Amino acid sequence: MSNKKENFARFGMAAKGAVYSLIGVLTALAAFGQGGQQTGSKGAMQYLAQQSYGQILLVILGLGLLGYVFWRMYQVFANPKGFEDNLKGYGKRVAFFISGLIYAGFSFYAFKLAFGSSSGSSSSMMGSLMSGSNGDTIAIIIGAGMAIKAIYDLYRAYSNKFREEVEEAGMDREAQKLLINAGKVGHTARGVVIGLMAYLTLSSGLSSGNKISTTTDAFSYIQNEFGSIALGIVAIGLVAYGVYMFIKAKYPAISVKSLR
Fold it and tell me: TM segments (predicted)?
């Protein structure tokens, strides 16, 4: 793969890291009473839109997220890691495809905000879909998918495979230690947040509430049930996940070696 395409993929990882870092910082500040706000990806972009040079920042972020979409789609269609044609292999590629679609949506939203529009047909379309007769079924399916993702993140945080991948990447010892620690903390925090989103979404679907829970819903649940300190710890964990993505973007041996 050409260096330009590889750099585009690495730019995408850095953009994803920036989004998570901003979500974590804003939510941690809110948890500790220092301003900020409980927010998810779209809220973080709305915050950027209100800053000086916000339009430029959003355009850069939108382009970066397109790089992440490119990376995911390359994993799906080029299959650089050689996933086998079985249930496990197809499952991973489907997960990559869904991830790509999600970040394509975030990229589109960043561009819409940059050029003066925050409303979109996607949210209204989802609202219409969820209000239909199959809304509860859709909520249950999405909630189950979230639960699987949460379990995978927690597995990723503590599996020996994760450590082996880092140790085999040819990084120096200090960089390895930082990546492993940031990855563990970050994947744990993300697993907790997505797990709570899954729980709230499944609960809604099973009670015919037909609501897809968001990151902000998970943050509110943590604060209401466990307090602001717990929310702050989880938010800092999301900042660690952002740092993890920055490190992956910097070291091609761990980030995009499969694209070569």
Answer: 12-33, 53-74, 94-115, 135-155, 187-206, 226-247
